Amino acid sequence: MLVPILIFNVALVAWSLHLMQEAFDRQEFSLMLAGTLVAAAAGGMMVVYFLMNNSIQKLFFT
Which pick of 1, 12, 30, 43 has the fewest CB atoms within 10 Å? Predict the structure, then answer.
């Protein structure tokens, strides 16, 4: 289950970097904000995954 989530997160980070590059090229604040929000979503998804992974391991494998 970790591999699809990691692939999805890499895609989100790549999209975030693309949005930020476009924002820099066009000097648009909205694209920079969108890129930052996408990067924050990717980071949040990884934090939730690791928290839930530890909780489920303790619940079922202890």
Answer: 1
pTM of the full predicted structure?
Answer: 0.76
Arithmetic mean of pLDDT, 16-43: 92
Say which residue the tokens 């690791």 belong to: 50
Nearest alpha-carbon partner for 22 in 10, 13, 35 = 35
Domain residue limits at 48: 10-55
Confidence of residue 62 (pLDDT cuts 50, 70, 90): low
Q: What share of the chain is helix, strand, coil (3-state, %, to 5)?
A: 90, 0, 10
In a domain, 4, yes or no: no
